[in-house]
Amino acid sequence: MHECPFERAVKKKHFVLLKMFKIIIIWFWRRKISISLLASGIILVGLWSWAYLETSQKYPQSYKSANSVDEAVEDSNQSQSYRNLFVLQKLISDANRVLSSHQNRARSVKRNLLSPSTRTNIASKDSSGSAVVVKEASAQTLSLVARRKKAPVVGESLFFEEERLRILENQQRAKNSAMEDIQMIDEEARTLTSEERQIQYEHELQRMGVPVIAGIGPETGKAPKERLVHLDLKGAPAKITFLKQLLTMLKTLGATGLLIEYEDMFPFEGPLANLSATNAYKKEELKDFLETCALHGFTIMPLVQTFGHLEYALKLQEFSAMREIPESPQSICPSRKESMDFLEELLRQVIEFHLQFVNESTTTLKMTHIHIGCDEVYRIAECSLCRVKLKDQIFLDHVMAMAHFIRSHWQQLNVLIWDDMLRPMSLTKLQTSLIGNYVQPMIWVYTTDIYASISPTLWERYAQVFSTVWAASAFKGAWGESLMIPPLQRHLENNIRWLAVMNKEGGRFSKGFQGLVLTGWQRYDHFAILCELLPAAIPSLITTLSTVSKGYFSTNPKDNGLLKVLQCYFHPDSRRSGHPWIELHNNSHHSQLFSSCSYLGSQFYQFSLRLYDKLAEIQMYLHHVQDKSAWMSTYNLRHNFSSILIVKAKTEQTQLFLQELITLSKEAEQLLYHIYDKYTIGEFVEQHIYPTILALQTNLANATALSQARHWPRRPLPIAQAMYDLQMLADAPKTIVHDTIH
């Protein structure tokens, strides 16, 4: 039977297609490793692109300094390059593992082909469609084929391995370069003279914005023997859990003890029970806190006011009879017997509580001093019993009486007082009183010029009366009674200047300076509003404390104790970025170091920065809309005379600002919940946020009132009668022009 031409053509076409298909299969089989390598390369590029995009989204460049945006971007880009380099190394390692797997698979194929039990004959068809039997391949031929197929795999594998090694070499080269720079700097420092090293040190301080004080540096700095941190708890008690965390940080930075001012936060009992605030600490809480202080080896120095600043007691009716003058509870009358009985009971309860804890504690709590205040006694020698005596004599007699009471009951305790009331007294008066045998003065100056308050003459006078003295600087609560964030640079300069003064004046006293106390006032007095909250002042505290503990500000980030308590996303190193690792120029509270790193209280500090900026923005807005406005001034409001369209346009942002402040209030409550009780949180919000909310609400109400009018009078508008009543203008005209509508 003969095939028709059409069938023959179809079969021939099928044969050609089948042969092409076999050729393609054989081609792919012979080049399977190359194709796998190509596919791996494509996958590698895809994975690298995905990793780059994923990393960019996960680590946005969000750490920007309010002072210096360029530095933050550079640090962020540097960190980004490190992450990309790590991802690239990871992908290369994965690719090497894929290629190794292909090599193993190729070797297994080679073994299978060389095995007699697995060799097979390959059948195909010739051009006529007949079956062709291919003879069994020899072992030599298969070996040559296997070696030929293996070559490109090895070559590609070496390519990736060389790339990985090149990256590692670059990293090692960078490390070696950094080490060489450090060694070069060290060698240069060794070759410089002492004066040249000091000049270099001061130059670096200027770059950082750190105050440069003559005589303070790595070779001349000397840390005080005692470094105490003041905890002012009056009216704003931080939770014990927060304070215990604070202790760990203070210990790390070199603090040796605490000056604790309880005021109405102490759990008084008996006849003094009403002195305690309703949210005062419980005895169990204070015992827990003091036990933690003992574990850290801290010295505890209670501060109990015994002359001035007794508002928290004398404000109450039951103690008002002890006031120096009836209208002011600021100071107590020292000439009344009930006053002395009250003060002795006050001291007894505080001292006995601490000493009892010391005796019961398994670990020794150090308590060698008691501070009895006696600063800023504004009203003295004014009552009928006191005015017959001189002011200085009344003060000295009262201090001596308090010191004698303490020393007669607790001989192991030394008595401290603030020094400001002693400054105007003459040398003869101080020596005659023998006050130097009973108390140690704590000299406090919180400004940047110590000698403006304590002159060399006064230093010499103190040295002839007292064998030893203390110094007191500040880390908050000294540059404004209602600040939200302390000016870090000013506090740092105050502490560094104190270091210089202590080095210079310590030799005047036979026993030198006992130590330095970093005060952190919470209120200027009992009736004042809050100063900076403690968590917002942590950057100032850790900067000043680390400096005081070292005796100078270290410009080397690895040698500065400040970085021991900071958890930074970036690496503060000026050698890499070319910029100082810390910058404390104007608006120093916007430093990137504290707004980007994590530490105790960092979230509230960063919140305070945002709140500060938002309040400043709103105040500027209200000033522009109301005070400088020609359509919403007090004149417009008194006469209800303005343009409705302009009023609406000017106040369209008011509602938005209101919502933002309400949101910030809720955020403040959330952040402070674990630090303060609800009363302190409420006071902070009411003090810093609520007044601006009221101003915005008033702005909205004024805009609404001005927008109600639909008809307006003819000019001139009437003159305010109040100005005539105050005789600001001549008498009002007898004839008053009334508006008439024609």
From TrEMBL:
Catalytic activity reported: Hydrolysis of terminal non-reducing N-acetyl-D-hexosamine residues in N-acetyl-beta-D-hexosaminides
Pfam family of the protein (one): Glyco_hydro_20
Gene Ontology molecular function, alphabetical: beta-N-acetylhexosaminidase activity
Key words of the record: Hydrolase, Membrane, Signal, Transmembrane, Transmembrane helix
Entry's EC annotation: 3.2.1.52
Keyword S-adenosyl-L-methionine applies: no
Spans through the membrane: 33-53
Family (UniProt): Belongs to the glycosyl hydrolase 20 family.
PANTHER family reported in the protein's UniProt record: BCDNA.GH04120 (PTHR21040)
Protein known as: beta-N-acetylhexosaminidase
